[in-house]
């Protein structure tokens, strides 16, 4: 188990647009937290602020008593290693094999020359194989990443994040482009890592049912603000109405009753 992640009045402006507006959260070690909201609600910016891919305009982010917003240079690079990020686009090198793509997650432990030469120890290779095994991908280890399905590529990206030995794992819309079967495998992989390793996981989701099924805690955002923070059971229809508005709830109800929604078990939050 690792330390608390705390956001205090975190705000981020992009010109005249406020992407995140005075967001405050305290996330205990080992929680599986889903962040939901319409497109443009500030979900992706929130995760990028935590990882320091984006700097806050104001406010504070700390982890285990360390002020993350003050980190620079080597300390900032160490934080980005400890706070692994999984992207919707996978960000794999298609021409490289799966094993090498996973080993890229170890480059932060190497010096400049070692990184350029892509030299990895036997211990690191064994670590990468173990990560692939946890995600049912060992048979694909020597296959070029570009030949894999989208779901397989996303699981490779999770394995790459896993070999960083992170303290927190962030996933930005990891299943947005996947079919239901692959989405389930990706979410199952994240949940197993969360439960087996006690690793804190923050994941942005565009499907309400997925958040309810997998997450210990759900944070809902609207116009950059945290509008809801609680358990799946507390996320009632009235709360959904407040977050998405009457039109959004009507679209949501229609999706729930549709044949496709019943067949897949996944309900998309209105875009």
From TrEMBL:
Pfam families in UniProt: ABC_tran
GO MF term list: ABC-type phosphonate transporter activity; ATP binding; ATP hydrolysis activity
Recorded GO CC terms: membrane
Domain ABC transporter, first and last residues per copy: 5-248
Database matches in InterPro entries: AAA+_ATPase, ABC_transporter-like_ATP-bd, ABC_transporter-like_CS, ABC_transpr_PhnC, MetN_ABC_transporter-like, P-loop_NTPase
Keyword flag Translocase: yes
Keyword Nucleus: no
SUPFAM superfamilies the UniProt entry points to: P-loop containing nucleoside triphosphate hydrolases (SSF52540)
Keywords: ATP-binding, Cell inner membrane, Cell membrane, Membrane, Nucleotide-binding, Translocase, Transport
NCBIfam families: ABC_phnC
Protein's name according to its UniProt entry: Phosphonate ABC transporter ATP-binding protein
Originating species: Salipiger mucosus DSM 16094
High-level lineage: Bacteria, Pseudomonadati, Pseudomonadota, Alphaproteobacteria, Rhodobacterales
């Amino acid at each position: 188990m690792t330390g608390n992640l705390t956001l205090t009045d975190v705000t981020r402006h992009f010109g005249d647009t406020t992407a995140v507006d005075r967001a405050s959260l305290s996330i205990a070690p080992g929680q599986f937290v889903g962040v939901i909201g319409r497109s443009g609600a500030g979900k992706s910016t929130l995760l990028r602020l935590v990882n320091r891919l984006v700097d806050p305009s104001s406010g504070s982010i700390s982890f285990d008593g360390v002020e993350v917003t003050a980190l620079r240079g080597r300390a900032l690079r160490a934080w980005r290693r400890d706070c692994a990020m999984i992207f919707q686009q996978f960000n794999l090198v298609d021409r490289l094999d799966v094993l090498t793509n996973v080993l890229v997650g170890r480059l932060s432990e190497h010096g400049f020359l070692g990184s350029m030469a892509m030299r990895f120890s036997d211990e690191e290779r064994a670590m990468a194989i173990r990560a692939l095994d946890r995600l049912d991908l060992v048979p694909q280890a020597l296959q070029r990443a570009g030949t894999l399905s989208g779901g397989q590529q996303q699981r490779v990206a999770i394995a790459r994040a896993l070999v960083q030995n992170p303290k927190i794992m962030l996933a930005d819309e990891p299943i947005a482009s996947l079919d239901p079967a692959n989405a389930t495998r990706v979410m199952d992989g994240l949940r197993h890592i969360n439960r087996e390793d006690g690793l804190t996981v923050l994941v942005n989701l565009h499907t309400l049912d997925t958040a309810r099924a997998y997450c210990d805690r759900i944070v809902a955002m609207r116009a950059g603000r945290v509008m809801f923070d609680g358990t799946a059971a507390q996320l009632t229809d009235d709360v959904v109405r407040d977050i998405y508005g009457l039109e959004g709830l009507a679209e949501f109800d229609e999706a729930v009753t549709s044949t496709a929604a019943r067949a897949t078990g996944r309900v998309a939050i209105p875009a």
